[in-house]
């Protein structure tokens, strides 16, 4: 009888707690195979996102997010990804916690690097993205006539991030099918311009670091067909802080087999190293 009472009490407590917020669960899993000059590898990557949302009477919305990452082929295995509280209102958005991103890197969709299929092996010294920080607090303004600004700070705490105390800033402006982005972090600066019309997209990005020879540029072309297929290509080149020239490129395609299930293929090169990638991604 005591066990029954304890179980009943636990269920009632869970029901009362859940009544304060709308709970949703989403995620995705991707299986992938990569063929390189150095050998063939397979991998996987997945996450489960648990989200609780509570709308206040004053129009504000509070959201708590916990993301669990899972992989059978990495040394770390299963671990916690992002975990944060987010407040949304007429003032914009405030994020407190581990967003697994920063304001600038969350807003840099106009860079060429973000408009290909997979970027499986990355771009090395030709990458136009900012180095990024482990942001603990983020503010993003509402869009005002297409203009939006975001700023994030990595607080000095006990985590393992080497970017404690650093700040980054992102600014975007969108009108019609065009968007412009500018970002900065310490001595790094980057910007991107993207235009989309009738399913066709062109995106151009640039990055530089003050006081060094580091600079990079990229351009991407993407076209989305009505049958659920997208084809894309990107070309990037750069110079590292040590003066080394780097080139990267890839071309690929993705196809929605059924809603939520996507097949992707990509072939590319980073300097003289070639690769071919194929992946299946299912979201839920």
Please characterize this protein's 3D structure.
- The protein has a 16-stranded antiparallel β-barrel.
- Strand 11 (about 200-210) and strand 12 (about 215-225) form a beta hairpin.
- The chain is globular and about 55 Å long.
- The protein has helices at about 1-20, 105, and strands spanning about 20-35, 40-55, 60-70, 80-90, 90-100, 135-140, 145-155, 165-175, 180-185, 190-195, 200-210, 215-225, 230-240, 245-260, 260-270, 275-284.
- It has about 280 residues and is mostly beta strands.
Show the helix and strand layout.
Blueprint: H1 2-18, E1 22-36, E2 39-55, E3 61-70, E4 79-89, E5 92-98, H2 103-106, E6 137-140, E7 147-153, E8 167-175, E9 178-185, E10 188-197, E11 200-209, E12 215-224, E13 229-239, E14 245-258, E15 261-270, E16 273-283
Antiparallel strand pairs: 1-2, 1-16, 2-3, 3-4, 4-5, 5-6, 6-7, 7-8, 8-9, 9-10, 10-11, 11-12, 12-13, 13-14, 14-15, 15-16
Features:
2 helices; disordered N terminus; 16-stranded antiparallel barrel; 284 residues; mainly beta
